[in-house]
């Protein structure tokens, strides 16, 4: 797995790791049922603290994206179908992004361009 953490970013390390793992799942590098590296192995690979990796895994588990079994590795638990609660959460996040963009002075056209570029990355190019 090719996870790169930017130490100069203002984004917390656990959020960077969570996003990178989500990206690996979305692009198909990690499939449903695939094991993730142990917390210790991923911490060593990324030069992160064990607690940081654990926090990232717990975040993904809370979202239902991975399953963590006691005394075992975490596994990808990619859902075949979104639940209503998942759709509501995504809708809230999209609205939050739009509000933030508006407050920062990002135009509708700029936001649409960003949105379409990212849509293409996950849905059209696959």
Blueprint of the fold:
Elements: H1 13-26, H2 39-46, H3 50-62, E1 66-68, E2 74-76, H4 84-103, H5 108-124
Antiparallel strand pairs: 1-2
Question: What would your notes on this structure say?
Answer:
By secondary structure, the protein is mainly α. The protein is 57% helix and 5% strand. The protein contains 5 helices and 2 strands; from the N terminus they run H-H-H-E-E-H-H. A two-stranded antiparallel ribbon has the order 1-2. Helix 1 (13-26) crosses helix 3 (50-62) and helix 2 crosses helix 3. 15% of the residues are buried. The model has no long low-confidence stretch (mean pLDDT 90).
Give helix and strand order, one letter per element, not per position.
Answer: HHHEEHH
The first-to-last residue Cα distance is: 19 Å
Query: Roughly what is the average pLDDT, rounded to an integer?
Result: 90
Structural class: mainly alpha
The profile of the biggest β sheet is: 2 strands, antiparallel
Low-pLDDT stretches are none
Helix content: 55-70%
Strand content: under 5%
Strands of the widest sheet, in order across it, are 1-2
| Strand segment count | 2
Rough outline: globular
Computed CA radius of gyration, to the nearest angstrom: 16 Å
Instruction: State the helix count.
Output: 5
Oligomer: single chain
Q: What keywords describe this structure?
A:
globular, 57% helix, two-stranded antiparallel sheet
